Structure formats: structure tokens, C-alpha cells
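HOLO CASE FILE
Compound: zinc ion
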Amino acid sequence: MRSLARNHCNAGIPWHAVAFAKAAACPVEEASLPAREQQAGSLQDVSGSPRRIRPVADSTRELPLVAAQLRRVIRGDVRFFLFLMLSTQAFAGGLQPYARLILADSPGAARDGVRVTYLGTNGYQFEFKGHALLVDPYFSRVDLLSVALGSRIQPNASRVDDGLRHIAPKADTILVTHGHFDHLLDVPAVMAKTRARLIASASSVDLAKRAGASSGDAVKPGDVRRIGPWKIRVLSATHDRLFGKVPFDRPHSQDRPHSQAGLSAEASAKPEPPQRAADWICGEPLAFLIEVNGERIYIDSGGTATRLPPNARVDLAILGMALPDSRARLAAALAHLQPRYVLPSHQDDFFRPLSAGFQFGPLTDFPFVQRECAQQNRSRLILLDYFKPWTLPKAAGSKSQSPNPRKD
Ligand SMILES: [Zn+2]
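Model generated. C-alpha cells follow.
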């Protein structure tokens, strides 16, 4: 991941994006900065604290200094969002070139199987015999600038209502893979409307409650929950890194040298509702193995090769593919899961409203995903479009019902 900016130098990213990535990710000579700051003007930083910064340089000789100043003002966690913003134009593209991979039920199709509806980002609805289960529902699609600048963010009620029109009025449960805003921000609102119960990590449950959720079942890897027709196994997972670290992985207070570490500190350090993107911390990332109708669905939000999915043959593997880390572990993940169908997830540009249609995110690489799946030559690679349900076909044999003898 540290080589991301370098790699992208060869990948057609606009020069300004590369320059920004370098300013954000690479060491910059900061000698004499303190002295310069003595004469600097004032600028509000993303944490709301006034910072001293020199007016825009009037000579190219001072550009490195300006870059260093910006790097100090802009928190590391938000640099990558700015990078995304600057590079978005180079990568925008829809699903059309991959139309042959897109599956959807034909009108009037039988509804006796497990129906999967893609809600954008890493959001899904699974339905079976009148029951619904949601994962990471996120409809607000906060704009990139608000995230990058550390503005206050909140659910967009009208977009949430639009999204809810596409899903069942009542859901058994909502599973959340981690606490980032693009997974958890809308969950309290969706819980209130669908009367679903939240299943997530302790820190995500804490965030959701502070944001208004009435309850939450804090789970950890190894836990199993049975709700209606669903059997849910909670698995450990990791989160992709960008510029060498997981974005928004801990509360701001823990960036300070003498702060406490650990969940109890997270809970006590920020008792107020999460307000900015950085407040929606990752927490412990989770994956889920959902068993229903004799079929198995594995879902995560991406991850690194340090923690692979279990050796458990599944019918459908939904694998986050937003960033290079998750793509690097794709072949190994497929070898473990041996899915009948593989659905790459979290590939869309989640800063655009859902009504604008699916566009690949700037740091995705679907051609690479295609090549990896072709090499594995076992699973059927599929795509789903927003709000177009698809029913998972039953396996021809009984494979999906027999547990895999291999265990981690
Ligand atoms: Zn995330």
C-alpha cells in the first residue's frame, strides 16, 4: 500500500492526483517550518482548531513548503479522500462493459430461493420466505468533499426513504461489517423503519447507539446467532489499508500520545454522537457466514491477506474489492471459499448518489478481479446492479448442504 502513489504514476492518474498523493504519503522536508509558522496567517483545520499557515507561496521554490504545510493541516485520515476526489475523473466507468456478468431475476420469476438485492457500496438485502436480512445498508451517500473537509455528516432522510422503497418493510436483522460511515451511518434510521435488530462489533454498536439506535447485539468472532431462517456465524476480518494504515481506525483522542488505548477508552473518550466521518471509526472488522435454505453466503467488506476467509465452501462469496489489499488476497480467498458464485463488492463510487447509477470507484480495478477469477476457473464471477434482485440458484447436487470437512 505504501507504493500506491508510485504504482499509480504508471496507471494514468492525472498529474495533480499523483502530486497530491506524493505530498500526502511521502516524507517531505519540513526544516524551518516552525520559523515560517511564526509569520503565518491563520487557517481552520479539519479538527476545528485554528492552525497557523503561511499565505500561498509566490514562487515555485516554496511549493515543497506549501505541500508540507498542507500535510500538517490535513489529517492523515482524510488525505486519501482528497486523493480519491482528485483522481475520480480518470476512472469513472459504469457496468455497461460487463453487461454479460450482470444477473437479475426476470419479471415474474419464482421467489422460492434466497433473493439477493444490491443496495450499493457494501449493502445487501437477503430475502427468504418472507424474511429479510440486511448487511451494511447505506443510502445517504455523503459527498466526498464533506468527508475530506471533516464537515458534519448525517443521514440524508430523503435518500434513506428512497432506498427503503426498494427493500422489505420489515427486516429480521442488520449485520454491519465495521463502523465506517459508509457502512453504519444510516443503520439507526434503517433500524427504526424496518424494526431490525443490529448485530455488529462492540464499537459499532456503541457508535450506532450514540447515533440513535435503540439497541444492538455486540458480537465477536466465533459467535453464532439464529434469527428466523438465518444462521449467522461471526468471523474475524481485517480492513484494507490506504497509505499504509486503516483509515479512521480509532477515535481522534487516541492520536494524542497520552491517550488510553482500547474499546473502553473509545467508549468513554467520545460519549457524544458521531458527527464527522472520522468519528465513524472502523473498530473490529467482521465477516459473516450466513446459512439459509441449505445454502451458504459469505460476506465481508474487503481485507488483507493476513486474515483469510475460513475453509468453508460456500454458494455465494461477496468479497469487498475497493482497494489493492483486498484484491491482493482475492486468489487465496477464493481458494478457501470455493464459491459457486463470486460477487465482488464495494466497487462502486460511494460518494455519488445511488440515483446516478453504478460507477466504479477510482481505486477499483475490475479487470484485475476478472483475471484473478478466470485463473481460479471455478467460481462464476457475477455483478449485480443497484436494486435489481437476483435469486441464488440451488446447487445441482447437495454440495451446499454438506459441511466442508476442512476447518481453520
Ligand atoms: Zn471501511
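CASE NOTES: Residues 178, 180, 239, 282 surround zinc ion (CB under 6 Å). Residues 1-59, 255-268, 398-408 have pLDDT under 50 and may be disordered.
CLOSED: yes
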